[in-house]
Amino acid sequence: MTVPSPRRPLLLFAAAVSVQILLLAFQIRRDNNIRLIRVWTVEAFTPIESAGSSSVHFLGHLWTGYIDLRHTYRKNRQLQAQVDQLRLQVDQLRGQAAQADQLASLLGFRHAHPSLPVLAARIISASPAPETRLIYIDRGSDRGVQRNMGVITPDGVVGKVLEVYPDSAQVLLITDRESGVGALLARTGAEGVVKGTGGPYLEMDYVLNATKVKVGEQVLTSGLDQIFPKGLPVGTVVTSSAGSPFLHITLRPTAHLDRLEDVLVILMHPKPPPPSNPDPSGGDHR
Amino acid sequence: MALEVKDENYLEVRKYRAGSLLGAAVVALLLQGFLPEYFPHAELLELPLLVTVYFSVGRRNAASGLLLGAAIGLTQDAISHLPLGVYGIALTVVGYLATWIGYRIDVDLPLSRFGLVFVLYDVERLVIGLIRRFLLEQPVPLLGRYWLLGSALAAALAVVLFPQLDRLRKT
Fold it and tell me: Cβ neighbours of residue B16 under 8 Å, at least 6 residues apart?
């Protein structure tokens, strides 16, 4: 004989016991006269309701957070744009202030040298070739600018006019290899010629080895080249060493050639160039 | 899972005369309420339990065993003013276990009957104790005060009573 599977009776047994437990729970009353089945029901549903409520709150907070985040993001973008605009204004104001300082400096130079005829000019561009040190200014022959006129700033010598056009002029900076300025050492008065190196520094030639030169000593224009009047600052001695037969002197230009904006053209008629060029390299053809 | 049992006589499904089950249950319930009036210790006998065990084992059907236990237990609850389900659950468990044990041992032997009732009496007491403690929140001992005496008395009575109930079988 085959014994029936105990699974079905087991289910029936569980059902019978469960029903009777519920029946008991319906009859039993706990504190405050509440039926046990109600207590159980509340206890069974409370965690679910609590979880549901928490979920709803969580989703609510999530949504609110999302909206707030969007507002914050928009506000942040507005503020960022405002900051950018203000930064731009600050930069513009800084530029204007620097320009004003420079103009004040130029004005001060004019007052200090009332007899020196100068013309204020603005840098409009620089040389596109890195091998040459050239700039263009916005004043030309229409305003009396001529070749070989000196160009300076209140800080010092900048260069000389190389080519002239009606509304503009090309200026060779003193740092160019082809440049040369008559100069003297401020302390001893020893004369020489300051030449460009193509780099940021200058060299001073033709100073005798016997001359005592100190680092930091100022070098001024001698006026012998008849381009620059005597006494304008050219550079400061950086190094000095004995050579043959002259000293090797390196200078740092006094004028800030790397950030030129406004310059002064010395309206002195320069001497005409010599009829023949002794330099075989032909550098003066510029 | 189905169990294959070789001895067919051992698992013989017993049939009883019409109304014998109902009659035995009613008598047991009446006596269970009546006897303690005169013999206070008679309440330890648990006659409805004996009837449940006897017919559950004899019918060898778990479903009918547990339903018989539930019916007798709920009736006992009803007439004893207990919350419905206290004895109902206890005798449901007893009916189911009696059938389950009835498959496995020879319950016609007096010793088997003694042991079976002894154990199931304690099971009933334990279930009732658990219900009273944890559902009704009554501070009672789990097995009752005289569970050992009650078990022994009920088991002894079973040894005597079950052969009498065997007379209700159809031949």
Answer: B55, B58, B168, B169, B170
Spell out which chain A residues touch chain B, with contact meaning CB-CB distance below 8 angstroms.
Answer: 1-10, 12-13, 16-17, 20-21, 23-25, 27-28, 30, 36
Which residue in the block uniquely carries the two structure tokens 């006998």?
B45
With contacts defined as CB-CB under 8 Å, which chain A residues touch B2? 2-5
A51-99 pLDDT tens trace: 988 999 999 999 988 988 999 999 999 999 999 999 999 998 998 887 7
Gap from B85 CA to chain A (nearest CA, Å): 5
Per residue in B53-70, pLDDT (tens digit) is 999 988 778 888 999 999
Asked if A24 and B2 come within 8 Å (Cβ–Cβ), the reply is no
Indicate whether A16 belongs to any domain: yes
Residues in chain B: 171
Domain regions of chain B by residue span: 20-168
Q: Which of B89, B99, B103 lies closest to A20 in CB terms?
A: B89
Note whether residue A274 is domain-resident: no
Q: What is the DSSP letter of A136?
A: E
Beta-bridged to residue A35, according to DSSP, are A29
Chain A residues inside the 8 Å CB shell of B62: 4, 6, 9-10, 12-13
CATH number for the domain that contains residue A160: 2.40.10.340
Counting the structural domains of chain A, the total is 3
> What pLDDT, in 10s, does the model give residues B138-159?
888 887 777 888 899 999 999 9
Q: What is the ipTM of this complex?
A: 0.78
B28 vs A: CB within 8 A: no
Q: What is the CATH number of the domain that holds A197?
A: 2.40.10.350
Nearest-CA distance from B39 to chain A in Å? Answer: 30
Residues A27, A97 within the same domain: yes
The reported pLDDT for the residue numbered A286 is 36
pLDDT digits (tens, 9 = 90+) for B82-106: 889 999 999 999 999 999 888 888 8
Examine the domain organization and report whether A155 and A191 are in the same domain.
no
Q: SS3 string of A253-279? A: ECCCHHHCCEEEEECCCCCCCCCCCCC
* Host domain of residue A252: 180-257
| C-alpha closest to that of B82 among B52, B55, B48, B115 | B48
B89, A3: Cβ pair inside 8 Å? no
- Chain B residues in contact with A27 by the CB 8 A cut-off are 83-85
